[in-house]
Design a protein that fits this description.
mainly alpha, two-stranded antiparallel sheet, about 0% strand
Length: about 350
């Protein structure tokens, strides 16, 4: 909004020239979403408490301590993240950019699905919301639509090609199969973040770390000069999604203020499904899908722990982990919640550094 209002005035008033710069607008997006989250946070939390009563239903098979420490805490806190992100993006982004709208609509769509899932859990007073099949169906439907639009918006030479880390010039042409691959990335990312969201502050900080990395990546691949210097595959127009990534960072910082142990609110599926999908869609736009698996390595580990646990149990009737996702395994082993959360944050930083190193090691 500000971009379209003030950039045309730059020729007459040079001070408005700063709105041409993506870096300035990205910084403005961080601050704006942070302030919005601080302002609306207490009001949304109070409203959620008044509506939810007993708060988020706690898993009966989960760690016993959760029945005491988590009882009464409201969920759907991701709503405040979405409001802050969307408003900040609309304020600072170039709204003529199709990629901005794709990521926004994916984020809002998955957020609405998560909101409905949270609502069903609350009305049923159960940790199980809508059925897995229905959830996957709508995730796949939204992902396929988003991937198709991204393909149409991209250059003909880039639309169906997959870039690989550590390889300078090689592009794998996947044809129309790229939509299926992109759908897998988006749905997988959404559910991986959802599985990670099990302890106070556990998911939001790695999400901010990953979003910061992809803000940088989108800025670099959207800039022809930087992309050529780093031997990245340039994606014209993709730099604008950095605004969404930085808006997420600001909103995440604001949400962490209320989600830090002991949490006043949980993000719920409203936040985790939408943020994971947002990250997946940005990785597809920037052609860094495999780098997402590295930068978001913590989310991958959490998801794999569930897959391995389920498959091994079906095959042998035994469990590898005391409980899945893996953060609950360490709870069962006696680790305190803050210890698990902070150590997982450290692991997320390590994965992010490894992922960013692929930008130069080509």
């Amino acid at each position: 909004m500000l971009y379209h209002l003030l950039v045309p005035l730059a020729d007459e008033y040079t001070i408005f020239n700063v709105f041409r710069y993506l870096t300035f607008r990205s910084g403005g997006a961080v601050i704006t979403s942070l302030i919005i989250c601080f302002i609306i946070g207490p009001k949304i939390i109070a409203w959620l408490k008044s509506k939810q009563g007993a708060g988020q239903p706690i898993r009966e098979d989960g760690p016993e301590s959760h029945l005491l420490t988590k009882h009464g805490t409201p969920t759907m806190g991701g709503f405040m993240i979405l409001i802050s992100m969307v408003f900040s993006t609309l304020l600072w982004a170039d709204l003529s950019n199709v990629y901005v709208w794709v990521v926004l609509l994916v984020t809002i769509g998955f957020g609405a699905l998560g909101f409905y899932d949270d609502y069903m859990k609350l009305t049923k007073r159960s940790s199980k919301g809508i059925s897995g099949k229905k959830k996957i169906f709508w995730q796949v439907a939204m992902s396929v639509a988003a991937c198709y639009i991204i393909m149409i918006a991209a250059n003909d030479n880039d639309a169906t090609h997959l870039a690989l880390p550590f390889l300078k010039t090689y592009l794998l042409d996947m044809g129309w199969f790229y939509i299926i691959f992109g759908c897998f990335v988006m749905v997988g990312s959404s559910n991986a973040v959802n599985l990670t969201d099990g302890l106070d502050g556990l998911a939001i900080v790695p999400m901010m770390i990953a979003s910061s990395c992809f803000a940088l990546i989108s800025y670099l691949v959207g800039n022809a000069v930087f992309a050529e210097y780093l031997q990245l595959h340039a994606m014209p127009g993709s730099g604008e999604v950095a605004i969404i990534c930085t808006s997420m960072v600001g909103a995440g910082l604001g949400f962490l203020w209320f989600n830090a142990p002991p949490a006043q609110v949980f993000m719920g599926d409203t936040g985790s499904l939408s943020l994971g999908a947002m990250l997946g869609s940005v990785s597809i736009i920037t052609k860094h899908e495999f780098v997402l698996a590295i930068i978001g390595g913590l989310f991958v580990v959490e998801a794999l722990s569930v897959i391995i646990q389920v498959r091994y149990y079906k095959m042998t009737g035994k469990r590898i982990f005391l409980m899945a996702p893996i953060h609950h395994h360490f709870e069962k082993k006696g680790w305190s919640e803050p210890t698990i959360v902070i150590r997982f944050w450290i692991i997320a930083v390590i994965f992010a550094l490894i992922g960013l190193s692929t930008l130069k090691l080509r």
